[in-house]
Amino acid sequence: MGVDFSWTGFAVALGIGLLVGAERERRKGGDGDAVAGIRTFAVAALLGAVGASFGTATLLLALAAVAALLAIAYARDAGSDRGLTTEVSLLLCLLLGAMAIRQPPLAAALAVALTILLAAREPMHHFVRGVLTAEELNNLLVLAAATLLVLPLVPDRPLGPFDAINPRAVWLIVILIMSIGAAAHALLRLLGSRVGLPLAGLLSGFVSSVATIGVMGTQAREQPARRRPAIAAAVLSTVATFVQMAAVLAVTDLATLRVLTVPLVCGGLTAAGYGALWTWRGLRLSTPDPVQGSVVFSVRASLWLGLMIAVVLLVSAAMRVWLGDRGLAIASGIAGFADTHAPAVSVAALAAAGRVEPAATALPILMALSSNSLSKAVIARANGDRDFARPVLLGLAIVLAATWLGWWLG
Fold it and tell me: Does residue 374 share a domain with residue 268?
């Protein structure tokens, strides 16, 4: 049996033991009865490296011996109330020392991650016990299950009438809605609703403005004290629509972007101004800021919003089949019910290929923006109460009017 000597691996193994052991030595605080310190961890890491060099059998024997010694030490001190963190870390340190023989970079990276995890004991315990509520933990578990368990099982192919609905894409929208709610809740906990909600709306709009408006409608309905910040967040999410539109047009066809520069600037600035107005009105609230005890997201509302978006996809596909391609503006307007950027890219690509004049691209793209605004209005009214929907619909109408006015002036 050959022996695999790797001086680099032994050096990395020693560094791993010293690094993790230093953190454990500091944690001991001079307690001589502690099970392991910096020297024990360094020796264990080197033992793992030696065992890996001589073969799998030797490594397993070393691992079993260290585990037996740890079990004896733990049994002798069974009366004290301590966990198993140091013992498990010592076994992992031995395995990382063994890994360092063949994969030094990965072993070193894992050792750094382990040390950070061990050093972050107090902040992690405080966060789980003193900051994170039971309801927040349950919601995060639901989000994890929806992403890691359900998503891989959902079919990834068009189904239903007109092959309009991809179940995986719709479920991704549901996950997205729950994620936006979780992000908004995190900003609420950090900044309060008066600043946190508008900021969450602006940032979440770059992911999905329609989904953001639906989430903010639910927030406003369940927490009336947050209505003004939620309105600001809903309208500010549309700012992202104009920014993203300019970005995709710049990549696809600069001539089309030049034609639409004035409408996009007018619409984006109007949305920002209207959202800033409602943010300012929210800052003037004298009522207490109810953050503690609020839900992270509503699973029922997320499923309902995903169902509504699926219906919009089905209706737009049916209209496209029934009407056909009678005109670029009609086709773009129908596609805009589901998404405003895809038809814009399609139209700009036609202009880039020379099949459409750049001046003729403005009308179909603005039709897509208009129909997408109608989808946002429907979502706002369905998810929020009347006091939320009315100013949001007014804001969407003003933004849309400013966009068309910019086209007319341009």
Answer: yes
Whether the CB-CB separation of 4 and 52 falls below 8 Å is answered with yes
Contact at 8 Å (CB) between 42 and 56?
Answer: no
Model pTM? 0.57
Asked if residue 178 lies in contact with residue 146, where contact means CB atoms within 8 angstroms, the answer is yes
Angle at 319 between CA 314 and CA 324, to 5 degrees: 130
In which band, very low, low, confident or very high, does the pLDDT at 312 lie, cut at 50, 70 and 90?
low
Distance CA 7, CA 4 (A): 10
Q: Is residue 2 part of a domain?
A: no
**Mean pLDDT of the region 166-182:** 77
What's the token pair of residue 40?
A: 């024990």
pLDDT at 368 over 60: yes
Q: Which residues contact 47 (CB under 8 A, 6 or more apart)?
A: 62, 66, 94, 97
CA–CA separation, 62 vs 41, rounded Å?
Answer: 14
Examine the domain organization and report whether 166 and 77 are in the same domain: no
Q: Tell me how far apart the alpha carbons of residues 301 and 307 are, in angstroms, rounded to a whole number.
A: 10
Residue 397 binned pLDDT confidence (cut-offs 50, 70, 90): very high
Do 118 and 136 lie in one domain? The reply is no
CB atoms within 10 A of CB 292: 8
How much is the average pLDDT of 275-293?
68
User: Rg (Cα) of the chain, in Å, rounded?
Assistant: 29
Instruction: Tell me which of 87, 109, 127 is where a domain ends.
Output: 127
CA dist 280 and 216 (Å) reads 17
User: Using a CB cutoff of 8 Å and minimum separation of 24, what contacts does 314-322 make?
Assistant: 314/160, 314/161, 314/162, 314/164, 314/165, 316/164, 317/161, 317/162, 317/163, 317/164, 318/161, 318/162, 318/164, 321/162
Three-state DSSP at 159 gives: strand
- Cβ 249 vs Cβ 260: under 8 Å: yes
Q: How confident is the model at residue 124 (pLDDT cuts 50, 70, 90)?
A: confident
339 Cβ contact partners less than 8 Å away, ≥ 6 residues apart:
372
User: Which structural domain, as residue segments, surrounds residue 179?
Assistant: 132-409
Q: Does residue 118 carry a pLDDT above 60?
A: yes
User: Last residue of some domain: 127, 151, 181?
Assistant: 127
